[in-house]
C-alpha cells in the first residue's frame, strides 16, 4: 500500500475515515427508514431481518448476490386498476411495464439515499432482467412475494398474487437488500384480504386456479407467459423446424409473429393476468363489488370471459380440456411448454409444477427412479388421488422401477432420444409394467 500513500484520493479517504465511521448509524431507525422509502415513491413498506425463518429457503441465494445483507426492505407501488381490468391487453402491458420501471426507480432512490449515509444497499430488480443463464431453473435473485408477506404487506390469495389490505392485488413488489439492521421489524398481518369470491377462478382462461385452491402452474405459464422464456424458445424452435416462409405461416399466424416482434421490441407482453383484473379485494378496491356484485361481474369479469382470443395450451393438458369446455369461442393453439430440464434435480423439482391432476385420475402408483452416470441419485414419485409427491431416496414399495443414465433421461425428456432405442441399449431399464411409464408421462405433458 506504500506506493499509494501519496495519491490524492488515498490521502482524502484517510482524512475522512474518522468522519465516515461516525456518520454510519449502528442500526437504522425504522420510522425514519419508512419515511425515506415513502418519500422515494413507495406506497407501503415493511422490513424483514435476513435471519427470519420465512427467508430460509432463499437466504443462501440472497447472500450469494449481496453477502452483507442484514435487512430486506419490502415495498409496494400501486398500479392503475382500470388498465389491468380492460380486455385491451396493450393497455394492460403498458401498465405492467411502466409500474415495474417505476418500482425499480423507487428502489434505486432508496439505495442511493442510504449510500449517502454509509449504508450499502443492493437492488435485485422488480422484474426483468433476470439471471437467464440459470434458465429453466430459478432465474430471480429474490422471491418478492414471500418477502412482502413476511413484511406485513398482505397475503397471497388463491390466485397466488399478494393482496395488500388497502390497495388489493393492484400492486408491484420491490425489495432492497441492506447491510444494516433496523431498530424494529414488521410481521405478517393477522388476516388474509382474499375474499375467496372465486372471480379469479371464473376469469382465468386456462383453468389454472381451482375452486378448491389448487393451482396449475403449467397452464398459467404456458399461456400467460407465451412470449417469455420457454414460450419464446418454443417459437424459435418452430422457426428452425419450418421448411419455408409458407410452412412457417401455416404454423404461426401473422398476428402471432407481430405480437412476438412487439415483445422483442418493447418488452415481453402478458397474455392474460385476468386473475388480477377480476380481484375485488382491498379497502380501496372493494366498494363496487359490495355495492352491486352482479354489475361488477358484468363490467369486469364478463368482458374478459367473452373476449375472442388465442389460448395457448400443451397438448393433452388439463388446460386444453378446460378451454374447449368452458370457452368454446376462444381459439385453442397447441404448443410445447418449452420446458426442458437441464439436470435431474431440475426434472424432479419441476414435477409438481407440471403435474396435470385431471390426467392422473384413476392412477395410484409409486415410482422409484434410480439415475446413474453424471448425476447419480435416487427418488420416489407417488401419484395418488390426483396428487403428486416427490421424495428423495426410495420410499415404500414401487409399482415401477426406472433405472436410467441421467444424460440419456434428460435427452429423452427433450425429445432428442427415442425411448425404445434407449430401452434396447439398456440406458433406460424398467422393472414393472411399461404402461405405468406411459401413465406417468400423461400426467406431465410438455
TrEMBL record:
<dbReference type="InterPro" id="IPR036527">
    <property type="entry name" value="SCP2_sterol-bd_dom_sf"/>
</dbReference>
<dbReference type="Pfam" id="PF02036">
    <property type="entry name" value="SCP2"/>
</dbReference>
<dbReference type="InterPro" id="IPR017896">
    <property type="entry name" value="4Fe4S_Fe-S-bd"/>
</dbReference>
<dbReference type="InterPro" id="IPR017900">
    <property type="entry name" value="4Fe4S_Fe_S_CS"/>
</dbReference>
<keyword id="KW-0408">Iron</keyword>
<protein>
    <submittedName>
        <fullName>SCP2 sterol-binding domain-containing protein</fullName>
    </submittedName>
</protein>
<dbReference type="InterPro" id="IPR003033">
    <property type="entry name" value="SCP2_sterol-bd_dom"/>
</dbReference>
<keyword id="KW-0479">Metal-binding</keyword>
<dbReference type="GO" id="GO:0046872">
    <property type="term" value="F:metal ion binding"/>
</dbReference>
<keyword id="KW-0411">Iron-sulfur</keyword>
<feature type="domain" description="4Fe-4S ferredoxin-type">
    <location>
        <begin position="185"/>
        <end position="214"/>
    </location>
</feature>
<dbReference type="GO" id="GO:0051536">
    <property type="term" value="F:iron-sulfur cluster binding"/>
</dbReference>
<dbReference type="Pfam" id="PF00037">
    <property type="entry name" value="Fer4"/>
</dbReference>
Amino acid at each position: 500500500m506504500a506506493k499509494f500513500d501519496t495519491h490524492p484520493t488515498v490521502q482524502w479517504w484517510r482524512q475522512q475515515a474518522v468522519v465516515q465511521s461516525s456518520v454510519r448509524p449502528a442500526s437504522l431507525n425504522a420510522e425514519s427508514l419508512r419515511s425515506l422509502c415513502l418519500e422515494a415513491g413507495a406506497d407501503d413498506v415493511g422490513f424483514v431481518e435476513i435471519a427470519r425463518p420465512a427467508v430460509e429457503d432463499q437466504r443462501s441465494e440472497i447472500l450469494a448476490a449481496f453477502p452483507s445483507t442484514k435487512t430486506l426492505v419490502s415495498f409496494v407501488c400501486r398500479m392503475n386498476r382500470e388498465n389491468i381490468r380492460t380486455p385491451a391487453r396493450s393497455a394492460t402491458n403498458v401498465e405492467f411495464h411502466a409500474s415495474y420501471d417505476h418500482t425499480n426507480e423507487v428502489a434505486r432512490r432508496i439505495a442511493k439515499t442510504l449510500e449517502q449515509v454509509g449504508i450499502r444497499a443492493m437492488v435485485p430488480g422488480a422484474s426483468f432482467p433476470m439471471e437467464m443463464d440459470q434458465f429453466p431453473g430459478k432465474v430471480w435473485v429474490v422471491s418478492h412475494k414471500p418477502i412482502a408477506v413476511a413484511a406485513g404487506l398482505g397475503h397471497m390469495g388463491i390466485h397466488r398474487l399478494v393482496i395488500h389490505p388497502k390497495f388489493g392485488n393492484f400492486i408491484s413488489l420491490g425489495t432492497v437488500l441492506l447491510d444494516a439492521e433496523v431498530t424494529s421489524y414488521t410481521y405478517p398481518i393477522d388476516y388474509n384480504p382474499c375474499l375467496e369470491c372465486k372471480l379469479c377462478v371464473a376469469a382465468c382462461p386456462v383453468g389454472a386456479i381451482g375452486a378448491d385452491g389448487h393451482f396449475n402452474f403449467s397452464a398459467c405459464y404456458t399461456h400467460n407467459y407465451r412470449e417469455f422464456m420457454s414460450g419464446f424458445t418454443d417459437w424459435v424452435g418452430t422457426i428452425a423446424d419450418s421448411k419455408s416462409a409458407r410452412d412457417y405461416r401455416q404454423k404461426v399466424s401473422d398476428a402471432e409473429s407481430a405480437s412476438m416482434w412487439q415483445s422483442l421490441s418493447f418488452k415481453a407482453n402478458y397474455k392474460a393476468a385476468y386473475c388480477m383484473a377480476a380481484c375485488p379485494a382491498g379497502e380501496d378496491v372493494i366498494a363496487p363489488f359490495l355495492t352491486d356484485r352482479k354489475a361488477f361481474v358484468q363490467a369486469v369479469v364478463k368482458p374478459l370471459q367473452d373476449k375472442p382470443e388465442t389460448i395457448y395450451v400443451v397438448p393433452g393438458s388439463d388446460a386444453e380440456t378446460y378451454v374447449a369446455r368452458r370457452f368454446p369461442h376462444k381459439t385453442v393453439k397447441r404448443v410445447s411448454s418449452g420446458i426442458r430440464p437441464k439436470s435431474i434435480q431440475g426434472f424432479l423439482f419441476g414435477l409438481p409444477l407440471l403435474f396435470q391432476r385431471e390426467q392422473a385420475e384413476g392412477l395410484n402408483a409409486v415410482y422409484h427412479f434410480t439415475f446413474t452416470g453424471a448425476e447419480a441419485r435416487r427418488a420416489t414419485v407417488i401419484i395418488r388421488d390426483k396428487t403428486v409427491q416427490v421424495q428423495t431416496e426410495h420410499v415404500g414399495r414401487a409399482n415401477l422401477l426406472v433405472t436410467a443414465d441421467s444424460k440419456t433421461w434428460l435427452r429423452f425428456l427433450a425429445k432428442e432420444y427415442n425411448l425404445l432405442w434407449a430401452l434396447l441399449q439398456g440406458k433406460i431399464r424398467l422393472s414393472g409394467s411399461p404402461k405405468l411409464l406411459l401413465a406417468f408421462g400423461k400426467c406431465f405433458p410438455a
